[in-house]
Amino acid sequence: MSGRIIETDACVAEGADWLAAREPRFAALLAETGPLPLRRRPDGFAALLDAILGQQVSTASAAALRARMETAGLMTEPAVAAATEDDLRACGLSRQKIRYAHALARAGLDYDGLRGRPDAEVIATLTALPGIGRWTAEVYALISLGRADVFAPGDLALQEAARLLFDLPGRPSEPALRAMAEDWSPWRAVAARALWAYYRVRRNREGIR
User: Fold this and answer.
1) 209 and 139 in contact (C-beta within 8 Å)?
2) Cβ neighbours of residue 147 under 8 Å, at least 6 residues apart?
3) Is the distance from CB of 160 to CB of 173 less than 8 angstroms?
4) Please, what is the Cα angle at 47 between 133 and 71, to 5 degrees?
């Protein structure tokens, strides 16, 4: 079973109330940020392809890549699977991203089936693909699948927000933040939304688009 799914703003508010009651610093955070955003996106092939396009480039560059892919009609699984390397290179994809895009399009993932599988199975299935690391898989589960208890401790904005909120001497490592987040279960995905919102308030930047 997939566990609790975040579907509405009320779900996020429920998780935020739980976190505020469990950890006073989350209550202080929410006083600064106000209500947390839902942060839900569609799941499926295009969502993962978009994550690959955004790897190691700026938000603006990723948006430009996606626009060229959309113009070329290359945001669907069959189209990318059939595209040549030259087709994808013409859209601005690097050799590495071409390989990742082809691997994703030809993997035959059961996206509908993923919705009902446990969090750990979702992460394992996605990270078995070239170009899909743990951060990408966790963000997909958190935002596209709406999993309530998934966190992405490898995210730099979450690490920095945790440093600020908990007054840590340095930015926590991925293992350290993963251990911290265990105390926020079963609402770790709402804790992520809270920390992203806090990062935006404190740094005037979006941690994730």
Assistant:
1) no
2) 2, 3, 4, 5, 6, 119, 122, 141, 189
3) no
4) 125
Q: What is the pLDDT of residues 9-68, one digit of tens each?
A: 999 999 999 999 999 999 999 999 999 999 999 999 999 999 999 888 888 899 999 999
Q: Which residues contact 41 (CB under 8 A, 6 or more apart)?
A: 47, 143, 144
Number of domains in the chain: 2
Domain encompassing residue 155: 9-39+149-203
How far is it, in rounded angstroms, from Cα 181 to Cα 179? 5
Confidence (pTM):
0.91
- The answer to whether position 186 is within a domain reads yes
Rounded Cα gap, residues 138 and 184, in angstroms: 16
